[in-house]
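hey so u asked for the seq, here:
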Amino acid sequence: MTVVLSPAHVQDIADLRQLYFEVYGHGYPIPLGSDPVVMRRLIMDGTAHWLTARTYGGALVGSAVVVTEPGSRIGKLVGLAVHPGHRGGGLASRLTGTVCEEAFGTGRLDSVYATVRVVTAGPQHVVVRNGFRPLGLLPNAVEVDGCETLALFARYADGVLDRRAPVAAVPDGLSALLSAASTGVGIDYAGTRDAPDRNAAGAEGSAGAVHEAARGTGTTGAEPIELIAAPGFVRRRFLELFPEADDRFFPLHTPNAVLAAADGSFEAYADLDPNAGSCALVAVHPRPSAVAGALEGLMATVTRAGADYAEALLPLADTEALEVFLASGFVPSALYPAMRRIHDRLHDYVVLSRTSRQIDFRTTAVSPLLRPYLGAYLSAWTSTYLPLHEVSR
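ran it, structure tokens below
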């Protein structure tokens, strides 16, 4: 049956909510498909490109959105949904391609990313057919029908990848991820060498203590972490500490909670979503490496708040911060080349993640394009949680 694509309007909200319910049931983890206030704002404020698909009879059978925010030059493809009765005819691909072309057509975006469910291979094929490249895997990243792994993909505007700023050296723990990105994105990281070991594990007490704490048999960072979940206050405080847009960078995430060291040594701002079971560490004041020695306590606090998954986004060039997170059980999960524009150059970022649940890849449909990232994640996880001297016993 032929369908017509058109921009979403406020009067579509009731039909859109019904569509998301029919596709996802009660398990859809984001308000875009369930909260009419959020949906109205996205349709009205000009920060989203939202397309709907209707049959000639008027039935709403598909939806896709690219959300943006002023200044970041990054969009996110979300809310792709096709009614079960209209699958198999290419509508998901058509919606994806059209909404992305519209978003890039403004000239205000360098890239659009998507986090794709991997319970089946279909969503991966949809984004790849529309020019998205694989960037990594985010194990246990979201609670949908149980705890699910997501795949990260991105599509770039023309010429963006050619304007990347080179990175001379990275911690050794990132070498497998860079190798996977070389295959998946087509970027040559041969000139990026391993950085000298700064003994970052020592900042957490010792490498052995970090691994032991990660398995729940020891502790580091014994000072208590205070969680303040007051979204209005947190946003005001966040903007006081990071008044300039250049001082904060975690696109499309707004902190709603702050994790503060009892001694005042740092404040970690988080986008905490207990419904999805996830937490994004948006920024740390005074600097990311300030959480050295306290990440175990921070993770325990986040877990008690209902998030089994936490992620941090760090510049590939910030060796000091990367080493602190790597030494505390965070695993390099994805690499986002050319993510941030500073003047006329674009800079690479790394997603590091940590989950308190057992990871199970047995039901994950990993496409061939993602397999190098799966291998890189397993290698990094093994070196983090199964030290060689223990494996060889």
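The CA atoms of residues 183 and 372 lie 8 Å apart. The radius of gyration is 21 Å.
lmk if thats what u needed
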